[in-house]
Every structure is written in structure tokens, then in C-alpha cells.
């Protein structure tokens, strides 16, 4: 792992409004910390503005400082690769999903063992979302089901199966009882978590939908598509109030786009969104026009698996080959991404 990291190099490119590319050359040397995981990192989230939450093929869940690289906690209990991690807002509770078909809850300031277990899926768990009040958990799996759980008791409060609904991702709509879900059947579903029923299904896309995110105001949804050789791989913006048609597409990745997010308010380039792809690139897009503001190629990183935002200018990116990359969006006359650290 360390040897792989030492060979990494990166460069940035600025995208003009007409779509042409202006190379900006190599970025400054980034800091190299001891790897957080001993194998590929599959999922990453921002626990606080200073702390990074991650899961990997080494079956562990880790909490570390993305600024210093210092490890704070490591949770071990899953029997197979960790697929998703998330946390409850203003809580020390951490949730992880795994290929071992289970979900576990850990406490940042508690015992190292799991505080709660949520067994019940028949296949790998690929969706994980916690409610804004931290009382309910929704999970999704390749077994075609979405489940709702009581966090305190671990009781399954509901289970709904839909044929061919191989779940790829879940995210909760801020301030609402709704959960957005992407699927291998190429659709994006809006679930009403109160009755665990589908409230709306967006028009199907041409490719598998791999991930989703919801804007902080709960009005917009972003989804990503699988792709290969320049076909597919787009991100799509949807309006959760006008649910008939897509609002906008963001095209530029050459392979499957695996993760997306709305950048937090405060950046000079907001409103904007970010995407990561199997093609080893991270891109930042102007939300309203679809123009690509900046791109960063993480050469040697392999497929990029997951994105998270620490603040308005700092992103975390999980890679299969080379750990967690800390990226900085430079707020100058033209936006540019640079790699500042690897964990």
C-alpha cells in the first residue's frame, strides 16, 4: 500500500465554458500519511469538519483526522468488506454496512465493539441512510429489499421487496421523512419512510444508477450512472418538487461515475456539485449551467469509489488502490482541484 502511494502523481485541468481543457501542470507535493486501511478503501464520509470516517476491504471501520492522518478509533466486527458508512448528525453514533449482509452501529466514544447489530438482509448491504433525528435507519441490499430499523432496539420496523430492485445507494432528504434510492434497474425511487412505500419513481435512465445525494435544502437530487468508453457515466440533477423530468446532466467522465455530492454552501463556486469515477478523475461542475469548473486525475489511484465533503473547499475521495485522498478546491479566478494529502 505504501509503495503504491509513493508512485502516485496528479495533475489538474481547468475546463473553460466551451468545454476545452487548459492543463495547469503538476500540483504541489501532497502529504503522505500512514495508510488508514491495509487494503482498498470502499467508502468515506465526513464525520465532523475535522474527522474522516471510512470503511474498506480490510473489513474495518476507521475514524481519523484528515488534517494530521492520526487514527482516533478503529472498529472491527464485520466478517467481509465494508461497503457503506454514515453517521447520525450531532451524534457519536456511526453506522456501517458490509458484504457480510449485516449493518452495525458503533459509538465514537464508547466500547470498540458494536453497540447494535441489524441483521436481516439476504445479500450484501449496499444502501445506508439515517434519519435526521437519528431515531430510524434505512438499509438497502442486492436482495431487492429496503428495510427500516429502530436504532435503539435493533428491531426491523418494515421490509419491502421490489422485483429487480438491486439497491446501489440510499440517502435521506434533509428535514423530510423521504429517502432517495438508486438501483441497478436504472431507476431512482423516492421512499416514504413512514410507511416504507415508494412515493415516486423517476423516469428510468439508460444505465445503472450507482449513487445519489440530496441538496441541503432538500429540493434537488443528484444521481450517477454506470458507463464505459465514454458511453454513460453522467450525473443527473432532478427536482424533487417537479418530478417528471430531469433538470440537467453533467457529462465528461469516460467510465462509471460512482459517487456524487452537492458542495456545501460557502464556496466561491457554489452552487456546484462534484463527481468521482472509475476513470480516476474527480470533477467539479457548476450546478446551474452544467459547465465543468475543474477536474483532477489521480493517476495510479485506480477506480474511485466514494466522495465526501469536509467543508466548502475540501473533499475526501476513497480509492481502490491508494487510500483516501484529500482534495482542495482553490478559490481563485478559475477553479482548480489539487491533491493535498493521502491517508
Q: How many β-strand stretches? A: 33
* Rg over C-alpha atoms, rounded to the nearest angstrom: 19 Å
What count of helical segments does DSSP give? 1
Structural class: mainly beta
Question: How would the global form be characterised?
Answer: globular
* Main sheet overview: 6 strands, antiparallel
End-to-end span in angstroms? 11 Å
In which range does the helix fraction lie?
Answer: under 10%
Number of domains: 2
CATH architecture name of the largest domain: 7 Propeller
Beta-strand residue percentage:
over 45%
Q: CATH superfamily of the largest domain, called what?
A: YVTN repeat-like/Quinoprotein amine dehydrogenase
Say what oligomer this is: single chain
Might you state the CATH topology name of the largest domain? Methylamine Dehydrogenase, Chain H
CATH class division of the largest domain: Mainly Beta
Mean model confidence by pLDDT = 89
The low-confidence parts are 1-27
Major β-sheet strand ordering: 2-1-29-28-27-26
How would you explain this protein's 3D organization?
The protein has 343 residues and is mainly β. The protein folds into two domains: 172 residues, YVTN repeat-like/Quinoprotein amine dehydrogenase (Methylamine Dehydrogenase, Chain H), CATH 2.130.10; 160 residues, Methylamine Dehydrogenase, Chain H (7 Propeller). Helix content is 1%, strand content 54%. It has one helix and 33 strands. Strands 2-1-29-28-27-26 form a six-stranded antiparallel β-sheet, with no helix packed on it. The protein has a five-stranded mixed β-sheet with strand order 3-33-32-31-30, with no helix packed on it. A four-stranded antiparallel β-sheet has the order 4-5-6-7, with no helix packed on it. Strand 1 and strand 2 form a beta hairpin. It is globular, with a radius of gyration of 19 Å.
Amino acid at each position: 500500500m505504501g509503495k503504491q502511494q509513493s508512485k502516485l502523481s496528479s495533475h489538474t485541468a481547468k475546463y473553460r465554458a466551451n468545454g476545452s481543457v487548459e492543463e495547469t501542470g503538476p500540483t504541489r507535493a501532497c502529504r503522505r500519511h500512514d495508510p488508514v486501511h491495509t487494503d482498498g478503501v470502499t467508502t468515506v464520509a465526513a464525520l465532523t469538519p475535522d474527522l474522516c470516517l471510512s470503511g474498506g476491504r480490510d473489513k474495518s471501520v476507521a475514524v481519523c483526522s484528515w488534517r494530521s492522518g492520526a487514527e482516533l478509533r478503529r472498529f472491527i466486527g464485520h466478517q467481509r468488506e465494508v461497503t457503506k458508512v454514515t453517521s447520525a448528525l450531532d451524534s457519536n453514533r456511526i453506522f456501517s454496512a458490509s458484504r457480510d449482509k449485516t449493518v452495525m452501529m458503533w459509538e465514537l466514544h464508547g466500547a470498540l465493539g458494536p453497540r447494535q447489530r441489524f441483521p436481516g438482509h439476504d445479500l450484501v448491504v449496499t444502501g445506508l441512510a439515517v434519519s435526521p433525528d437519528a431515531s430510524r435507519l434505512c438499509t438497502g441490499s442486492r436482495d431487492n429489499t429496503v428495510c427500516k430499523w429502530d436504532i435503539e432496539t435493533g428491531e426491523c420496523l418494515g421490509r419491502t421487496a421490489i422485483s429487480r430492485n438491486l439497491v446501489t445507494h440510499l440517502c435521506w432528504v434533509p428535514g423530510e421523512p423521504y429517502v432517495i434510492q438508486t438501483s441497478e434497474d436504472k431507476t431512482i425511487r423516492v421512499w416514504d419512510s413512514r410507511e416504507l412505500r415508494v412515493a415516486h419513481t423517476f423516469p428510468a435512465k439508460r444505465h445503472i444508477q450507482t449513487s445519489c445525494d440530496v441538496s441541503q435544502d432538500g429540493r434537488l437530487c443528484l444521481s450517477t450512472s454506470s458507463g464505459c468508453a465514454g458511453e454513460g457515466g453522467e450525473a443527473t440533477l432532478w427536482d424533487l418538487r417537479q418530478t417528471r423530468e430531469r433538470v440537467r446532466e453533467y457529462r465528461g467522465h469516460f467510465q462509471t461515475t460512482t459517487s456524487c455530492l452537492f458542495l456545501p454552501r460557502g464556496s466561491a463556486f457554489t452552487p456546484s456539485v462534484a463527481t468521482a469515477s472509475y476513470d480516476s478523475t474527480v470533477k467539479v461542475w457548476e450546478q446551474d449551467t452544467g459547465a465543468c469548473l475543474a477536474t483532477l486525475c489521480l493517476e495510479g489511484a485506480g477506480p474511485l469509489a466514494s466522495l465526501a465533503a469536509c467543508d466548502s473547499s475540501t473533499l475526501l475521495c476513497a480509492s481502490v488502490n491508494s487510500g483516501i485522498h484529500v482534495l482542495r478546491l482553490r478559490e481563485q479566478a478559475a477553479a482548480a482541484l489539487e491533491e493535498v494529502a493521502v491517508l
